[in-house]
Design a protein that fits this description.
The chain is mainly α. The chain has 10 helices and no strands. Helix 3 packs antiparallel against helix 5. It starts with 6 loop residues before the first helix and ends with a helix.
Amino acid sequence: MRPGARPVRRAVQLLIGLVLYAASIAMLVDAGLGSMPWDVLTQGIVRRTGLSFGVVTLLTGLVVLACWIPLRQRPGVGTVANIVVISALVDPFLALLDGLPDAMGIRITLATSGIVLNGLATGLYVGARLGPGPRDGLMTGLVRRTGRSVRLVRTSIEVGVVSVGWLLGGTVGFATLAYALAIGPLVHLFLPRLTVQTAVPETVEHVEAVAV
């Protein structure tokens, strides 16, 4: 085994990160104060089709992954795990949270905690370095093909999906804006502490650009 490969640590960290990511999605959706950009789109599709949140998450993940083909992106283990684990767990987490009281204080706490948890989850799964999620890979593929900045490409994608999701009936609110403002600093805090050192030279800054 190569020094620094640490396959067990990376696999466990990836799995924990994806489980927490699914939980953070459910927390923001259940709070009803605005979801993460891609989840606004998912909510809109759910309301138009009647499919469950998890099923729509799975289908959109597969569609986005198909968009990698012309971009010549190669999925990793983490890419496939991202689609499967999150789509499988988000509905059970939503069902678990459904019994919480509808008090505004609880909803604000749920949304705030969900944003922080998402930052931690992103640091865990990206730091495992087993392949980006489908949406992250779409962004990095477009950056490479177009020569545009990460910030411009990511912003363009997320404004687009939020707009379509909102038109379809997805929830946009203060938590959507709070997430957009907070996720970069949160990942910047967590990722350097959670990135697993491997034999493949790659800087934390490069990995962080994928996540943020």
